[in-house]
Amino acid sequence: MKEDIDTLKDDWLTDNSIAFWEEYLEREYLTQYPNAHIVLLRPSMSFMLTQTPDPLTLREALPNFTQTSHIFLPLNDCRNPAIAEGGSHWSLLLVSIVDGVAFHYDSLHPSNASSARLAIEKLSRLLGRELVLKDLEDAPQQQNSSDCGVFVCMVMKHLLLGRLLRNPRGEKVSMSMAGKAVDAHKGRKEMLGIIEGFRKEGERRRR
Fold it and tell me: Has 78 been annotated as catalytic?
């Protein structure tokens, strides 16, 4: 939608913008690794998980995590499920089910700490195992009030492509983002460029 694309230019990213990015990473990269059991949970699913009193009732709506090794969850600080596109801040949770650890990357640390704790509480109940939350204080920090969604997308890409998919043997790998800078302006241009590429490809195929 036009409003979703407009937010990519210089505004707070919508659920749809982040969901598009996850779908892009899945189609362009994850499909090349059939033995990778990594789930990129959509923002709407992450929100539903945190807002549902009994997460066990969501088993039919959520992916089957039985064989999953890692889950990426974009987190929103919205607490009112009646408000569409609510909230004012995004952060990223990377859950290593195999290790029982959840890594939290908050570009306005510690703004979304309570959202991360709530997500881990619900996910632990859903998975039937305790998860330990590690709130990474060395996560890259944004310099304004609107880049949080872009940080989520760029950190997700780096962790997926640069860490998890480069480690097919499942060896221990650092999830720290210490010293890793995120260029939000460049990230926005990258995302807009991908959308424009898809648009041109669609036009070419319709000719």
Answer: no
